[in-house]
Predict the structure.
Amino acid sequence: MDVIDTVDWGGIPGPSDWYEPDRVATGLRVLAGATNLIQAAEAGSLLGCGGIVHDHSGAVFPAAAVAAPLLLDIAQQGHPAARDAALGLLEEALSFYPHAGYRRVATPYGPTVPICCDIAHHLRSRADFLIGQDQGRSLLADAAEHWRFEIREGVADDDGTSVFGVLSGRLPLPGDAVHTAELHACGVGAELVEVAVEYPPAGVCSEACLRVDGRRPHELPVGAVVLPAKCGDGLP
């Protein structure tokens, strides 16, 4: 409850005719304390009708990314009815589409990350819990489409750079296909890059190698994150 109340939900941007920040804090508090289906449904209505999403229009708001770790806490620690409601809200938040001008959120690894990619990152951080839930396994499968590659090292080649790092999620690997991606570095807005998979992860290992065309190693700093450009629908 204390964490819920420390967030300035009114300070999180959102379309004024749709986003109702008071619903977020109230809905999360009700969901965290829910002990039956009726209370969980009440919380779901608050959060799903202008809180973190607007389910009638299929819209998601930036507050959903901030609420994601709290919803996962509730799913892990709360009543089964609260768990089901929390996971259902996360499913909607991951699949719904944001309003123009409210598609991105600030994160520790970049100030303009697509909402869906940040939510997917939170979901993967709780994979040990989610894998034990039917709805959780479905969420992880959906999150895999929002892949994430964290750069650990770069080596120049003739027309670009080979970067070694950790791949989370599922990056399509057909032949020598080149993917348009976003490069996110801490404190720097996203830039578009072209990437291809040189060495995919082997077995359970998540280490992989990507080739980034037209960029030199100094332009691809350690700790930078590469995300699918389709999630951001082009840079704003």
User: Anything to note?
Assistant: The first strand starts at residue 53 and ends at 54. The mean pLDDT is 93. DSSP finds nine helices and eleven strands in the chain. Residues 80-95 form the longest helix (16 residues).
